[in-house]
Specification:
alpha+beta, Dna Ligase, domain 1, five-stranded parallel beta sheet, five-stranded antiparallel beta sheet, 24 strands, binds adenosine monophosphate, binds glycine
Amino acid sequence: MVNHSPISSSSISLENILIIGNGGRENSLAWAIQRNQLVKKVYLIPGNAGSERINKCERIKIDINNKNKLVEKLDFFKIDLVIVGPEIPLANGLADFLRKKNFKVFGPNKDGARLEFSKSWAKEFMQDANIPTANFWKVNSLEEAKKIINSSSVPLVVKADGLASGKGVFIPNSKDECLKAAESIFNGRFGNAGDVVVLEEKIQGPEVSVFALCDGKKYILLPTAQDHKRLNEKDKGPNTGGMGAYSPAPLLTEDSLDRINKEIIKPTINELNKRNIDYRGVIYFGLMITQSGPKVIEYNCRFGDPECQTIMPLMDKNFVFLLEKCSMGNLTGGEKIDTSDRVSACIVATSKGYPYEYKTGFHIKIGNIDANDCQIFDSGTSFSENGQLLTDGGRVLSIVCQDKDFDMVFEKAYKNLKEIHFEGIYFRNDIGHQVRKNFSKEN
Ligand code: AMP
Ligand code: GLY
């Protein structure tokens, strides 16, 4: 019997929260957190123009690499909890540093962030813990890579070991393309991130994102989500950071989630413990549901973007307490997130040309957006000198809506998206095609 203990506690001070990061993910976290009445202020370093439209939010202009200044600011603003959004500061040990300075931090230390910043380490980790994942070879030179590629009887995927802003994975269609990918990585295309290459067996199946909030020992799962990584409709074109998402993912039934828990999530937490890694943050399990069962494609040490924007509006007002409990090692594991029975849909609007070269600085006009169950989370926006909202990134913003079912929620999201205008706006019209019953009739 699961003990659904209350997740709020009036004795905890959570007046001032700091979120590090500048994307839509961080804006959606800020939006979810400010809904709690105990929270007086949510600071973002650096945030973006969209952060300023969120209730209680304020941006702080400071370089997080200037550690002394950072601590000074955190003390000055009496920060009760720090949430580190992106992987790079986590990989650089920001959470370790802030914990040593006695701040409460949601986000793993550098040892835990290794799940994301070294693909070969993560593969060996999974191998040791018997966690289902694609077969792999860790290679240190082009010569080694050539031998494996030439002798392989199965199609391979080529990955730079380190962080490469989501661009370090190649899905070649031939041995020749495979060799070229390995060569370009070893030739320094991703700098040191490509000193080691991981060759992986190519596996097949739909992908889902599962998020576990961990306190070091215990964890709870957020609603599942499905991202759309390809740029174009019908899941064609180059990989992007994500063009849209929905939550929960009906593909994951209760039974399949039980299996994922048993075969993947619990063994991951156990293996972290075995290695004395006190992981306090979110683990993002990028899974592929293959014919032989769920397999881990990748771990990330942060929330997914745009999955986070999609999931946050489903959280209840006590979400911030969960993050605080993780930071303190205080989860019971039985906390219940009241997500009601709504579903959530997110569509990302990008600049023309993304994920390659694109222009920025176009004026964004936002018309009449539904007042309820509809949010805009900016990913790449800034202000002009006279205060106009401008495009300032590849992924510019996402529109996120909640409703009773996927047909209703996507109709609402696309209707509201029509109210957003900027030169070169691009988005996919088929986000959620997997779950929209009306979709095949309309198209
Ligand atoms: P990653 O950055 O590791 O998430 O990889 C980006 C995308 O490449 C994934 O979302 C998958 O679509 C694809 N991918 C990664 N690894 C494999 C694999 N072993 N087999 C097939 N596709 C893969
Ligand atoms: N949505 C994919 C990612 O955040 O990596």
